[in-house]
Specification:
This protein is mainly α. About 80% of the residues lie in helices and about 0% in strands.
């Protein structure tokens, strides 16, 4: 094996790193300048990539934007997905729901995700498909995943839920509503304290179990 082969990185590895560099550059530009104010030329410049490379990974700005949104949501989702997945097998539902709720609200209210949410709303009238994409890869996907775990809990007699999807949606917004709306409308650019967020997470779980718990009348 030649020296060049020994030191050369796999093409797939370089390609993956370049893709992430493009996504990071695009996210920074989208958040600072909005969708309309961002150009593929600027993304290429900041990512230190040629336009040929940019278009090899992303066919156009719309595709790049969707990838940025999906990447941000997947990053946040990765932090709480294991907690969601264990809910259906929980032996201490109140504790496990509280762990999930606390992690969920902390992740969703991260400053860069709040900024992205504001940007999408601001652009929604001109680019409604972008707003729909955010909703599809974010809330809709998360609600479906959580509803699947609720179904398992219903089957085990841990919850009494007539509609698991509605229950998942309600739990999500019980957890997020106050901190998320406050962050959206006050221009806050700093993360909330855990103590502040935990207050809403814990109360959301208490209300959810009061409505859907097995001991309710």
């Amino acid at each position: 094996m030649s020296a060049a082969t020994d030191t050369e990185q796999p093409v797939s590895g370089r390609s993956a790193r370049k893709r992430q560099a493009i996504l990071r550059a695009a996210r920074d530009l989208f958040l600072r300048r909005g969708y309309a104010g961002t150009s593929m030329d600027e993304v290429a410049l900041i990512a230190e990539a040629s336009k040929v490379t940019i278009y090899k990974h992303f066919s156009d700005k719309h595709t790049l934007f969707i990838a940025v949104v999906t990447d941000a949501i997947d990053e946040a989702k990765a932090g709480s997905q294991s907690l969601v997945d264990k809910l259906g097998h929980s032996n201490d539902l109140e504790l496990d729901l509280r762990d999930f709720a606390r992690q969920h609200v902390a992740l969703v209210t991260q400053p860069h995700l709040i900024q992205m949410r504001r940007m999408i709303i601001a652009e929604a009238h001109r680019f409604p498909d972008l707003a729909r994409a955010w909703h599809r890869v974010g809330p809709e996907r998360a609600h479906a995943s959580l509803a699947g775990q609720i179904d398992k809990l219903v089957a085990r007699g841990q919850l009494q839920v007539p509609d698991s999807l509605v229950a998942a949606q309600l739990l999500n917004y019980l957890i997020l509503s106050v901190p998320l709306n406050e962050a959206m409308f006050t221009g806050r650019d700093k993360a909330y304290s855990r103590r502040y967020l935990n207050r809403y997470a814990d109360e959301a779980v208490r209300v959810f179990l009061a409505a859907y718990g097995p001991g309710r009348s």
